[in-house]
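#onboarding

Welcome to the new folks! Below is a worked example of what a typical request in this channel looks like: someone posts a single protein sequence, and someone else replies with the predicted structure as tokens. Don't worry about understanding the tokens yet, we'll cover that in week two.

Example request:
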Amino acid sequence: MPSPLYRSDADRFVPGVLTVGPWSPDAQHGGPVSALLAGAVESVPAPVPMQVVRLTVELLRPVPLLPLTVTTSVTRPGKKVQLVDASLTADGTEVARARGLRIRVADVDVPEQEASPPSPGLPTPDSGRDHGPRRTAFADALDLRFVKGSWDELGPVTLWSRLLVPVVDVETPSQLQRVVAAADFGNGVSRIVDFDSHVFINADLTVALSRLPAGDWIGFDVVTRLSGHGYGQAESLIFDAEGPVGRAIQSLFVDRR
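Example response:
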């Protein structure tokens, strides 16, 4: 069994080596943090079957490589729509928080819908394999296959992603966890400035889904846009083999080194 991103220790989650991010050897990547918070939101009991259709993660400060504690609360109860909050603390300091919007799940007749734009074909064993520089240990936790662009190129990219390790212990990751873990790569893979000259750190991540993706492979069509005033945005169209499933947005702090 591959090493998980986190190991549970009583009521805490101990980060592993694969959680390290690109900006500091002492801080975690936003992907593992987002996946951990997504699992916490999903684990809160609901009065009826419900699905998280939007998750916003706010990265309040660099998340250290220390044991983490997660607390949750239902801030908007209901049987049709709920808001669930999760807070992540390290050594008593809140480092990240998330808010999930949950909607009840029920069979409802809807018209046939055409997938537009169509998804590129799923990767073959060797297609689009990433051979570029891996600036974060977390990249080793995923199989990334580029359809357009690469780690080495600046500009928009299209890629497939498959999470290779559990998020916590030996638990199978949920589809939401697979999505948010990879969505936090958006600003890095679609950058339009170089790592050596600029920082472009996302302060948040919002994922909104029209449906859950099917299968392990989840695709992203990503573009970064910078304002020239020290901030910007990375936007991803999320898809699976059948077509689009949602979008992800990251708000970026931008500066020269």
